[in-house]
Specification:
With about 250 residues, the protein is mainly beta. The protein has strands spanning about 1-5, 10-15, 20-25, 30, 40, 50-55, 60-65, 70, 80-85, 100-105, 110-115, 120-125, 130-135, 140-145, 150-155, 160-165, 170-175, 180-185, 190-195, 200-205, 215, 225-230, 235-240, 245. It has one domain (about 50-245): Neuraminidase.
Length: about 250
Amino acid sequence: MHHGSDHPDDLVLDASGALLYSDYTSGTISLLRADGTSTVIHRGLDGPEGLVLLADGTLVVAEENTNRVLAFAPRASRAHVLTTLPGRPVKVTCHEGVDGIAWDATTHTLVVPDPVTGAIYRMAPDGSNRTRLSGGFVHPVGAAVGPDGSVYVADECGGDVWRLGADGSHTRVARASMPDDLALDGHGNLLVTDVRHVRHDLRRWPLAGGPSTVLARSGLIEPQGLLVDAAGRIYVSDDQTDVILRLTPTG
């Protein structure tokens, strides 16, 4: 649905159903129109990655190179800082800063992995009350929260996808070489992008157990952003082939 000269990374839908995407390379956030063209709505960011859109229209952005979480208030042109995570990132594989972030609708909080320290945090939408949920990961970059409040974490450099226990423990729920982003499809499945070049695919894993299904691989080099809309359609971005794909599962 989009193939341009930019490098789409994380994805989020706005209230009208329009797609917003980050571009780490150019430091921008863009809005994608239905005809496939796009417009930059925010620029000047230092490595924008994960996106969460709050109910009031506030856009929350993970800024990788500073290890900060920022927020753009509705109609605001400049962001304010919600929090700066403890880790000090460097531009070396498996040492970069904050990437994916997630919204927990059961507690109305943000779930934020700190890839540098391997810890997972929860905080209020205004950045207050940051608390540590778990730790011990190698380089956690993706997060998703189920309707029951279960938190899932992609450990990009440690491998595999994990569900957090109430005591901070980790339970493996999906196998992956370098998992990047996660999404739940509403049918008991976890979707996982894998950026390791020998895999570079999108897979569906049943949370009840069982083998995975490859949903997309051809034409992908580094699949990054991932989301599922209300109709069950899956959107996946690739910041190397510069595309955003929309998939409609048939089974």
